[in-house]
Amino acid sequence: MKLGLAFVRNNLTRDNLRFARQCGVTHIVVHYANYYQDHDQLPEKFAGAYGFTGSDPIWTYDELRALRQMINDEGLELEALENFNPGFWFDILLDGPRKREQTENLKQLIRNVGRAGIPTFGYAFNLMNVWGHSHGPWARGQALTAGFLEPEETPIPLGMVWNMVYDPGAPAGTLVPPTREELWGRFEYFLKEIIPVAEEAGVVMAAHPDDPPLPTLRGAPRLIYHPRFYQKLFDLVPSPNNQAEFCVGTISEMVDSDPYEAVENYSRQGKIAYVHLRNVRGKVPHYVEVFIDEGDTDLIRVLRILHQNGYQGVITPDHSPELTCAAPWHAGFAYALGYIKAALTLIEQE
Ligand SMILES: [Mn+2]
Questions:
Q1: Residue 248 Cα, ligand 1 centroid: separation in angstroms?
Q2: Of 52, 242, 223, residue with least CA distance to 126
Q3: Of the candidates 153, 157, 272, which has an alpha carbon nearest to the alpha carbon of residue 209?
Q4: How far is the CA of 15 from the centre of ligand 1 (A)?
Q5: Distance in angstroms (rounded) separating the CA atoms of residues 233 and 242
Q6: How far, in Å, from the CA of 254 to the mean position of ligand 1?
Q7: CA 317 to ligand 1 centroid distance, Å
Q8: How far is the CA of 155 from the centre of ligand 1 (A)?
Q9: CA 278 / ligand 1 centre spacing (Å)
Q10: 151 exposed, middle or buried (CB, 10 Å; 0-12, 13-18, 19+)?
Q11: What percent of the chain has pLDDT over 90?
Q12: In this model, does residue 324 exceed pLDDT 90?
């Protein structure tokens, strides 16, 4: 198994890539969408959104090749891009008028990704993305971390999807949510269009489960809120390029789920493209994200199951509580990476 680390775009610097390499990381995941674009200019009705999607065209081969080169120059591999800019596919998620055009654009994007030599594309097919977390001193030693503590569920304003604003001039009002069946229908459309292109391009599409994994959020349905819905997703379009961005933290947050059984099942099927490894205490509707070694799930056991089933892909620490020091983000991730690296070394010697 390989040690990975994910960066959001405004955290992707040469120094941070060096930090990753120094921690033993070999593979990088990049959130290439600029989530926080013009965040401070959001109109009041979009409070809580990350930022604007902008109206950039899809990422080109040239810029993706340059991104990969920057990472290669630091002795690292670019394993995956994580998440579309919601501006690329809002009408696929919403079944809107630009759906066909956006589908063709996503196909070209996946071709560009494959040609640039990036093997995996992670995504999350839902209308609200991560939403409703708050932050507090809830991990060991009062470390600052994220938690989900039953927020007030405001409906999604028009002009917003996946927690970003794609149309700041949208009329007042809120999204009329689709039924669960309608949303599965949109997901099936997406898979049937995109997976064949991903096969040709040599790109594995990797679906993240819904975080937080509730059956509905902000009044709208969510689809992957129990491990069994991964099977539904894989069976809709059977393909080696239709896989999971397997988030052990999110799966541990799911009600009535056994994370070890889920890891066993999907790693045996070869359906795990890469792993988000983090720990939590509690399940929806109340949980907090904690240090990698203090939550409800035995992550060493998870890694052992992966190894026994022949998984050879990338493990990334996903999130970490912040350590109280001058570099809280770096220290939190250095701790998680050191823990995972030691575990991988021992398990692979067994
Ligand atoms: Mn995750």
A1: 7
A2: 223
A3: 272
A4: 24
A5: 8
A6: 13
A7: 9
A8: 23
A9: 8
A10: middle
A11: 97
A12: yes
Structural domain range at position 81: 2-349
Q: Which residues are in the CB-under-5-Å shell of ion ligand 1?
A: 247, 276, 318
- Counting DSSP H helices and E strands in the chain, the numbers are 10, 16
Q: Is the pLDDT of residue 249 over 90?
A: yes
Distance 210 CA to ligand 1 centre (A): 9
Number of domains comprising the chain: 1
Residue 47 pLDDT class (50, 70, 90 cuts): confident
| Cα(286) to centroid(ligand 1), Å | 17
316 Cα: distance to centroid of ligand 1 (angstroms): 9
**pLDDT tens profile 110-124:** 999 999 999 999 999
Q: Look up residue 328 and give its amino acid.
A: P
Strands of the sheet containing 279-283, edge to edge, are 133-139, 143-149, 286-290, 279-283
Q: What CATH number did the domain enclosing 25 receive? A: 3.20.20.150
Cα three-residue angle 11-17-20, rounded to 5 degrees: 105
Q: Taking residues 161-190, what's their average pLDDT?
A: 97
Instruction: Write out the two tokens for 85.
Output: 């800019």
The secondary structure of residue 98, as a DSSP letter, is T
How far is the centre of ligand 1, averaged over its atoms, from the C-alpha of 198 (Å)? 22
How confident is the model over 180-194, as a mean pLDDT?
98
Q: What is the pLDDT of residue 150?
A: 80
Question: Are 105 and 88 a contacting pair, CB within 8 Å?
Answer: yes
Distance between Cα 31 and ligand 1 center (Å): 12
Dist. CA 171 → ligand 1 center (Å): 33
What residues contact 278, with CB distance under 8 A and at least 6 apart? Answer: 247, 248, 249, 289, 292, 295, 317, 318, 319, 320, 336
Whether 152 has a pLDDT exceeding 90, the answer reads: no
| CA 44 to ligand 1 centroid distance, Å | 28
Q: Tell me the pLDDT of the chain averaged across its residues.
A: 97
What does the alpha-carbon distance between residue 170 and residue 233 come to, in Å, rounded to a whole number? 32
